[in-house]
Structure formats: structure tokens, C-alpha cells
Amino acid sequence: MLTALWIVLLGMAIIFAVLGLLLAMMILLNRFMKPKKTD
Amino acid sequence: MHIPVSEFLGLLNLNWQIIVMLLIGGLLIYLGTARNVEPVLLIPIGIGILLANIPLSGLVDEGGIFAVLKKAGIDTELFPLLIFIGIGAMIDFGPFLERPYTVLLGAAAQFGIFGTFFLVYALGDGWLHLMNFSLKDAASIGIIGSADGPTSIYVSSVLGSKYAAAIVVAAYSYMALVPIIQPPIMRWLTTKEERRVEMPIEVKAVSQKTKIIFPIATILVVGLVAPKATPLIGFLMFGNLLRECGVVQRLSATAQEELADIVTILLGLTVGGMMVASEFLKSETIIIFVMGIIAFALDTAAGIVFGKIMYLASGRKVNPLIGAAGISAFPMSARVVQKMGLQENPQNHLLMHAVGANTAGQIASVVAGGAMLMLVPLFS
Q1: Rounded to whole angstroms, how far apart are CA atoms B324 and B367?
Q2: Which of B105, B203, B206 to mutate to test the interface with A (most CBs of A within 10 A)?
Q3: In the prediction, which pLDDT does B203 show?
Q4: Which residues in A lie closer than 8 A to residue B360 (C-beta atoms)?
Q5: Which residues in chain B have their CB less than 8 angstroms from residue A30's CB?
Q6: For the purposes of burial, counting CB atoms within 10 Å of the CB of B254, is it exposed (0-12), middle (13-18) or buried (19 or more)?
């Protein structure tokens, strides 16, 4: 069961790490790519 | 002259298991046609079950059409990946890009996958040994919590689970049951005051350039950190790029309609064709269906709990209900959130926030699938 617990912990850590990076990327994109009036 | 009638008359080869499967096939067709429950999937799956379980038809035997389709489309992971191009082309990530914080709700709601995986493994080889569930089976069953049929098919077939058919049917069936599974949990975990929190409808718009760069950047970020998720995220984001780049409308339309429709027909028939009585009617199948509900419930609960954390951290500006949409059942769970928000406060339009969390859940569930594919072989 310790194996399963490791998978749970590492799995959630990977998800938050990847999506945390995506969040940072989106914040940067939104900051540097302002919409034009035509958008 | 002796004529072996039982070798060519299907009727003489019927047994109770086959009759049960024929009834299940009929039930799915009924739910799809008469009750309009996920008809696009349940009708092909129902017909597939009927065809596969007719004795002596040869459809599932070596060289039979269902065996060929399974080998070509499921074992190679082709069908789920092609479906993902269509899904990517259908999804507008705008509401998500306008509200980047919703990505965290999508991440939290994936706990259902891992929580269910842990429970299944405890019932199987991990602790109690009550069921024949290996680590790979537990991971494949947990992935029902991705609330995403193609991801469930992909992960269970890559891991080689012997319960792939039951897992896929559970994943698709519960997608249709999201409006029934989620509301009681949402009410149970939130107070009236929390459910009444109003969120702004207007937000800062995102540029078209951002929408074009987003799928490419997502492939790179997800692929480089969780490489096993690359096929799924790659095909999903390819479909989305077709939609957003604005120069290949024909390809985008084809991905959304013809491609998605053709693969859905083939996928539905193949999944139905995998549900032969001897493979499907096992006590494990019942447990898989029960675990599917648990996975959806845990997803919802984890999303709401994280929503409550954001509610407190934001000074009561975030309505915790939108956390329930972090489950990737797109767009059903977003609609459930909108409906419940309006019931509590007629001025409260949570839809776009919930859609943001919902599309975040779509990406997060793919990452969760990739994480499972990465971690399970490592520990097996």
C-alpha cells in the first residue's frame, strides 16, 4: 500500500506542478499579449 | 446423417450470461433513443454489445470485425487520440484563459482518480485481496475519475488492464449521470452563504494571439514535464490549434464533425464489441461501476474543497461551487454549477467561471492520465 500512497502523492504533485507552470504561462501570455480592438 | 444443429443455430447456444448481455445492449439502446442519454455513444455501444453476444456470429473471433477494430483502434490507441483532435477543435479555451486561476480547481478535482486508485488497490492486490485487481488495473479503474472516455480508453489500453471494456462503459455512463451525482455532494459540502456568492460576468478579454500560442505552449509544458501525457495533450491541442489559428476552417470543421462522428461510431461499436459475456459478467465489473461513482464523487468533493480554500483566500469572492466543474465532464458539470448557482441566487451567473474550471479539468485529467502512465510502471 505504500507504493500506492507514493503514486497518489507523486501523481497529485505532478498535476499541480504541470498546471502551476501552465498558470504561470497563461499569466505571462495575458500580460504580454494584449487584445487588439478587433479581437 | 448427423447434422450438428448446435454448431450453426445460435439459438441453441444461448445461456443466461448471453441473455443478460443482450438485455444490457437493449437497455443502452433504450436509454440512448428513448431517454436521450448520451445517444451518440450509447447507441453504437448497445448495438456493438448485441452483435458481439450473438452466438456463433464470429464477430469477436480472430479475424472477426470487432477483433480487427479492437486491434486497429484500441490496442494501438488510435481511436482515443483521433477523438481528441475532434474534442480539441470543439473546445473554446477562452473562458479558461480569461480566468487562469481556474486551472487550480481542475488540478484539485483530479484527486478522485488517485483516491479511487488507492481504494481499488486496497481491495485488490495491495491489501485485502478480495478482488483480482493489480496495480495496473487499479490505475485503469481510478482513471474513470478523469470523467473523460478517451483518456480512460487510452490509459487502460496502454496499461493493458483486463477490465478495459467495463472501465470504458463506466466512464461514459457516469458522464451522463453527472447532473445526478454532483448536486447532493455540492449541497452537502457548501453553505447557503457560499453558494450565493456572486462572481463578475465581465472579465479581461484575451487576444487571438494568446489563443493561438496557448495550445503550442501547453504541448511543450505538459510534454516536457509529463512526457507520457504527450500523445493525449498533443492531439487535443492540435485540434484546438486548428480551431484557433483561423486559417484552416475546413480542417477545423472536419475535426469537429466528420472525424469526430466517424471515430465515435467506430469507437462505440468497438467498445460494445469488447463486452462479451465471458469477459464482462464478473463480480469485478460491479465493483468497477461502484468505484466509478466513488471516483466522480471524490473528484467533485476535492474540487469543492479547493474552491472553499479559494473562497477564504480571496476574501469570499470565489464561489466554491465552481470547484465542482474541475471534473472534466465537459460541459455537463459547468451546467450543473450554473443551475445550482441560479437556484440560490437568481443574479448569480457562474457559467463562464465554471466553464473555465471545466476546460482546466480537461487538461488536468490528461495530465493525470500521463502521471499514471509514468508512475505505475515505475512502481510495478
Answers
A1: 18
A2: B206
A3: 72
A4: 19
A5: 97, 100, 204, 206, 210
A6: middle
ipTM for the assembly = 0.93
The structural domain count of chain B equals 1
pLDDT digits (tens, 9 = 90+) for B267-279: 999 989 988 988 8
| Cβ atoms B351, B198 nearer than 8 A | no
pLDDT at B46 over 90: yes
Average pLDDT over residues B204-210: 87
Helix (H, G, I), strand (E, B) or coil at B11: helix
* Annotated domain spans of chain A: 1-31
Give the sign of the dihedral formed by CA B266, CA B271, CA B276, CA B277.
Answer: negative
Which residues lie closer than 8 Å to A37 by C-beta, 6 or more apart? Answer: none
Provide the residue range defining the domain that includes B352.
Answer: 5-379
Alpha carbon dihedral B91, B302, B371, B353, in 10-degree steps, equals 20
> CA of A4: which chain B residue's CA is closest?
B118
- Contact between chains at A18 and B367 (C-beta distance less than 8 A): yes
Number of H helices, E strands in chain A: 1, 0
Interface test with B, best of A9, A26, A38 (most B CBs within 10 A): A26
% of chain B surpassing 70 pLDDT: 99
Query: Does B290 have pLDDT greater than 90?
Result: yes
Rg of chain B over Cα atoms, rounded to whole angstroms, equals: 21
Q: Do A29 and B222 touch (CB under 8 A)?
A: no
Return the pLDDT at B287. 92
